[in-house]
Amino acid sequence: MNPTQASTLGDVYSFGIVLLELFISKRPTDAIFNESLKIHKYISTALPDHAIDILDPLLLLAEEEQNINQDQARRMEECLLSVLEIGLTCSASSPRDRAPIDTTLSKLQSIKESFLPMRW
CATH: 1.10.599.10, 3.30.420.40, 1.10.10.10, 1.10.510.10. Which one for 9-115? Predict the structure, then answer.
């Protein structure tokens, strides 16, 4: 691709960063981030074992308030982890490593379909 040619991969990157921001409730400009720690690294280091530690507490509070069983809680956490992984893929530093937007949309729709059947 010609460097002066427009690409949707920049939009994919921005989408990935916004997705990450929404789910961890932090901005790339927050004090926790600096030259050596960016939002992408912060999340990729935490996944998969410490995803719960970095998620927006309000997402987890909704889980507690709904009085859901362990299986539903596990499925919800899997969905949240999947969304974070999509955000990481979209915000990869190299444009070649970013998922195309149609693939991203398909994955998000699959997550939605697996999550929606849950009845609290």
Answer: 1.10.510.10
